Amino acid sequence: MSNLIEIKNLFKEYNEILALNNVTLSIPKGKIVGLLGPNGSGKTTLIKLMNKLLVPSGGEITIDGMSPGIETKEIVSYLPDKSYLNEWMRVDELMDFFEDFYKDFNKKKAYKMLESLKINPTDKLYEQRSQSLSFRRTYRRSRPRKQRLYFKHHYK
């Protein structure tokens, strides 16, 4: 079985403070892996590096043989614990954004998911905060994309 994730001698430094020091890790395709550790141990940094939200100070990361970036966004889904979306957006505008950004985004499936949660597509995101937990649970089950790798960031 080949590896979906390969990390070799990875370093990340913030203002001369070493957040990750010589991390080497291989994760085979088809496996579920959890990152466990105390606060400040580098879990969030590692996830952000694998999603190209941060740039490593040294070392190498490959996802399905490719460096994280535009090429890997089609196979990777990152669901952070806190939203980085603009709350002024309407739900339907978010669907348009996802459709433009992800080639494999299934807008029809996403709208069915919204309908099942009784979310109005013309509502602004901030109006749907009370439904966010239900949305996250439903999203994880039905996923309107076809990724091979999911990063779910969860605090606590």
UniProtKB/TrEMBL annotation:
The coiled-coil regions, if any, are none
Could you tell me which residue ranges the ABC transporter domain spans? 20-134
Matching entries from SUPFAM superfamilies are given as:
P-loop containing nucleoside triphosphate hydrolases
InterPro entries xrefs: ABC_transporter-like_ATP-bd (IPR003439), ABC_Transporter_VariousFunc (IPR051782), P-loop_NTPase (IPR027417)
Instruction: Print the keywords alphabetically.
Output: ATP-binding, Nucleotide-binding, Transport
The molecular function GO annotations come to: ATP binding; ATP hydrolysis activity
Question: What is the protein name stated in its UniProt record?
Answer: ABC transporter, ATP-binding protein
**What species does this protein belong to?**
Anaerofustis stercorihominis DSM 17244
